[in-house]
Design a protein that fits this description.
Length: 238
């Protein structure tokens, strides 16, 4: 495992009370982790807010420690956006990240995405169910993770608790990144209604600056820490 990843992981897990572990590896060099990144494109997110989610993800993938962590497990990643029920739209299809340079190229693809996604309600439960379906076509891996980003609570579609319970029975982990610019209690909402599966956790961000840092930490933890060594439930920005 690259030294930069080890150093970053020691810091993150020390803050969360855990310890580092060998990264998960698929058989015959296949992906160890498959990750669906689901961005909030609902009406509660302004055009500028969706833009900073995209910019934040591009910045995180360019971070050397994140790039090495992704490469260490040969991660497969897909980027999507959601709003109302049955609205999940794949922005970047499944992409293998076998080396740090692949992560940089993934960031370039994020920068090149067309803007102007127009959403309506915030259907987090529906997004979870639709994201889980993506694993059936290109997302095979020992660890399958859905990342839900939002600055609001679910107000349409299937109940997120029902959706979470449905997908975690398949062994899929649901993690969250709560943006607290409108609802300061949103982290607790994610803990109770959204995240699930072994070692699931939610990180929170107060603004655009802390969003990149929270996302960076979350991606490293998801790639390198085993479930029983992940932070339990809530992991707010230190």
């Amino acid at each position: 495992m690259p030294r930069a990843v080890i150093a970053a992981l020691f810091v993150l897990l020390a803050l969360c009370g855990g310890s580092p572990a060998a990264p998960p590896q698929g058989k015959d060099g296949q992906a160890g982790v498959a990750l669906v990144l689901a961005l909030d494109g609902s009406a509660s997110i302004t055009t500028g807010d969706l833009e900073f989610q995209l910019q934040g993800h591009a910045a995180a993938f360019r971070d050397p420690a994140v790039a090495e962590a992704l490469a260490s497990v040969r991660a497969r990643v897909t980027l999507a956006a959601y709003s109302g029920p049955n609205s999940l739209r794949v922005l970047i299809p499944w992409t293998a990240l076998s080396n740090p340079e692949d992560a940089g190229r993934f960031a370039d693809r994020i920068d090149a995405l067309p803007r102007g996604f127009q959403g309506d309600s915030t259907a987090i439960g529906s997004a979870i169910v639709e994201a889980a379906k993506l694993f059936d076509n290109g997302g095979k891996a020992p660890r399958q993770v859905i990342d839900i980003v939002s600055n609001g609570f679910s107000n349409g579609g299937i109940d997120p608790v029902e959706a979470r319970d449905r997908v975690t029975r398949r062994g899929i982990i649901v993690n969250g990144l709560a943006i607290l610019d409108e609802f300061p209690w949103l982290e607790e909402y994610f803990e109770e209604n959204v995240i699930g599966g072994p070692g699931s956790f939610v990180k929170s961000a107060l603004d655009k600056g802390s969003f990149v840092a929270a996302l960076r930490q979350k991606l490293i933890l998801e790639m390198v820490a085993l479930p029983d060594q992940m932070p339990s439930r809530s992991a707010a920005m230190p």
